Each structure stands twice: as C-alpha cells, then as structure tokens.
Input
Amino acid sequence: MNRSARLAALVLLASLGLGACSSPGGGDGSSGGTVTVFAAASLKESFTELGERFEEQHPGTEVTFNFNGSDSLAAGIVGGAPADVFAAASPATMARVTDERLTADAPVTFARNRLAIATAPGNPHGIGSLKDLAAPGLKVVLCDGTVPCGAAARKALAAAGANVTPASYEQDVKSALTKVRLDEADAAVVYRTDVRAAGDTVDGVDFPEAAQAVNDYPIARLEKAPNAPAADAFIAFVTSPEGRKVLGKAGFLAP
Output
C-alpha cells in the first residue's frame, strides 16, 4: 500500500472511531430517537416546556406528547398503545397501569396539584365558595368522576356540603376550562395550574376544601417502552431541580 493509500485508511479508521464514541442522546445514557410521553391534560403547558428543554440538552432526541384525561391514557396503555412514559394526575389512574404490571419500576410522585374554581373574568356571578356553585340558574361544569380532576372535585364538594348539578361532565380538565373561556359555562372546578395557564381569560377562586382533595402526580417508564434509555432520562429530568422549578412556576406543589 502506497503512502497516500495508508493515509486515507488511517483517516477513515479515525472517523469511524469517533463516530462509535459519540452519543446522540447526550452523556446520560439516553440513546436519542423519539420518546413518547402520555401525560395528563393538566400537564400540557409545563411538560411542553420540559420537552423543549430536554431536547435542547439531548441532541438527537425528540419528545412527543399525548395529552389527555389520565383515565383515557391509562385505558390506551392497557389496550396496547405504544408509549415510553406515563405521567398521571392521580395514583388511582396510575394503578390501572401498574396493576397490569405494565410499568418497568414503581411510579415516582413528581408533583402535586390543588383545585380552584374558574369563572369568567371579573367573576360576574360573585362566586366565592363551592356552595355558591349550587345557586339556581348557575351553569357549572365538572370533570367526569372517572378522571382525577372529577374525583377530586367530588371529594371537595362533599367536604363543603355543596350539592351541585353540573351542566356537563367533561373528559379532561382542559375541556372543562374551555367551557368557561367560551362563555358556555359560568364556572368550572379545575386545577389551580390550569387557571394560571389561562392567564386573563378566566378568574380563579380558591376554596379551603381544596386542601382535602390534593392530587399526587406519579410518573413511570412503561415496561415495553420502545426507547427505554430516553424514557429514563426524561423521567430523571422531570424529577430534577430544573424540572421541579418549571413545574413550580406553573403552580404545581412539590411532592
């Protein structure tokens, strides 16, 4: 082999060696590719930001989300929907997945959330408590009892002794809030984080019974995750100080 050929071979071997040593997912064990996260609807704003930050810190990794009611997401996972991570709005909905042994490890609680009443801007009906939601003619929307925000609302209403007949039951908290934002309802019982995310399009009313209906949010990697390394890296990021700072900014409570 002449000198030029030997030099070309050495350059090729060096480039192959560098490629083998590189890690497209960053230096934390993530392997790049796509990580699919099924997350409760109330996590949409905060998880979208966390996903963007995660992608910046893990070149070659893309985070895709399916935001929906936790109950619907759990049903999808049990039915075989492909996903890497499940972040639920209550331990009860996470249990639907863990009971089927579909998580790789025990879920970790990463945040907590409290309820609030969402009203039109200016609170035109003067709503100040849960009992006020029982006023005749007031159009109130609740989450369905099968989803975490609905189960929590029922608990809070029972604690307040408020007998409310809702105009509709919604399948996730964002749908309930949208009814108020579109003036299709006078009030909705939602999470405080959703009131904050809605900005000046709604007003929020706190009530003491919310302390008796706080929801824990668990997260877990799924047993059949197509991208287990990236899933583990994303969960580690969510539970890191940076992740908790983003969640706290959105109004979530520390676990």
